[in-house]
Amino acid sequence: MPLLTGVFFAFLAALCWACALLMSKSSLAQIHSNQLFLMQLSAALSVAWIACWVKKEKVRWTKETRVPFCLGLFEPFLAYGISLYGLMFISAGIASVLISTESMMILALSVLLLKQSMNKPLWISGLMLITLVGVIAISWPDLHQGRQSQLLGYSLILLGVFFAALYVVLSSKYVCKYSPSILLTGQLTVAWVATVICFVPMATFVSLSIQELTIVLVSGVLQYYLAFYFYLFALKHIKVYLAGAMLNLIPVFAMLGAFTLLNESMEMIQVIGCGMILIAVASLHYLTEREESQEESLAKH
Q1: Contacts of 170 (CB under 8 A, 6+ apart)
Q2: Are 152 and 289 in contact (CB under 8 A)?
Q3: Which helix (H) or strand (E) holds 64?
Q4: Contact indicator for 16, 222 with CB cutoff of 8 Å
Q5: Where are the domains of the chain?
Q6: C-alpha distances in angstroms, 45 versus 20, 82, 175, 220?
Q7: What percent of the chain has pLDDT over 90?
Q8: Nearest to 216 by CA among 10, 18, 28
């Protein structure tokens, strides 16, 4: 039963992230990414503080919480602030595939920053190379035509993914130390303050209809609160590699929605590039799962 519970909540997290991505892309047709990010973050932060109040959990700024809370500057502030701007120039389907490269970046940063050993380095290096070729294939039509705005979009999405991966690596030691609600609320608060300071002076605010406003606020709660909360809750019941594998569903959901709801399309070479990235990411999770299973078997004996 705990396994099914964990898989179910990891599935919900993937669905939330995919839906939020599609809703964000739709909203960017009406407003600038700065206004969208601030409104989404405000909605998520309000829900987070209400949840802490209901649970009677106290979020306090102390010497101990200062560092983990400030990691919110990496994600969601830099990761999503930059990615949303990049999403203005490229399709939601391609963006979702580029975002799936986060697991590759997490592995690379873990080796570089935490000095973690890499089992089967040749296999993993090969998968990283396949991912790189996939990224080049996705951007090839725009590289060939010299479309600078689309190339800027690809670069910004990948830069945002880098900051998200950096956040995961640096915050890994704090996940078990603090309640998910407290950690998430503190990080959202820091990100919101940074957004107000940095983005509000540059933002051009436009009025929205009730329907458009609802989509923006709901997407913010899905993206920055519910998805994170579901994912952290799933980690209490299943292994990290299984929860991570479930996140491979994000580009699947997002691409299906992009084609059916947003009427997006891709060239054949971009489809091939997407396939290469998804296969490489799925293979990485399979290798990780296999290694951890072998280590557990050896520990039992």
Answers
A1: 71, 74, 113
A2: no
A3: helix 63-70
A4: yes
A5: 2-300
A6: 16, 19, 19, 9
A7: 40
A8: 28
d(CA 149, CA 103): 26
- Using CA atoms, how far residue 56 sits from 59, 109, 179, 209, in Å, is 10, 36, 12, 35
Query: What are the distances in angstroms from CA 115 to CA 103, 126, 177?
Result: 17, 20, 22
Give ∠ CA 11-156-217 in degrees, rounded to 5: 50
Tokens coding 107: 């592995």
Instruction: Tell me the pLDDT tens digit for each residue of 228-285.
Output: 888 878 877 776 666 766 777 888 888 888 888 888 888 888 889 888 888 887 787 7
Q: How far is it, in rounded angstroms, from Cα 154 to Cα 81?
A: 14
Whole-number Å distance between alpha carbons of 274 and 115? 30
Residue 152 token pair: 């800027």
DSSP 238: S
* Cβ contacts of 139 within 8 Å, gap of 6 or more: 150, 151, 154, 273
Q: H-type helices in 28-101, by residue range?
A: 33-55, 63-70, 79-87, 92-99
Region of 58 (left: φ > 0; alpha: ψ -120 to 50; beta: rest) is: beta
Q: Given phi > 0 = left and psi -120 to 50 = alpha, else beta, which region is 140?
A: alpha
Question: pLDDT tier at 35 (50, 70, 90 boundaries)?
Answer: very high
Residue with tokens 């991570």: 244
Q: Which residue shows structure tokens 């605010």?
A: 205
Tokens 């880098």 map to which residue?
162
* 8 A C-beta contact, residue 178 and residue 194: no
Give one DSSP letter per residue of 17-40, joined into a string: HHHHHHHHHHHTTTS-HHHHHHHH
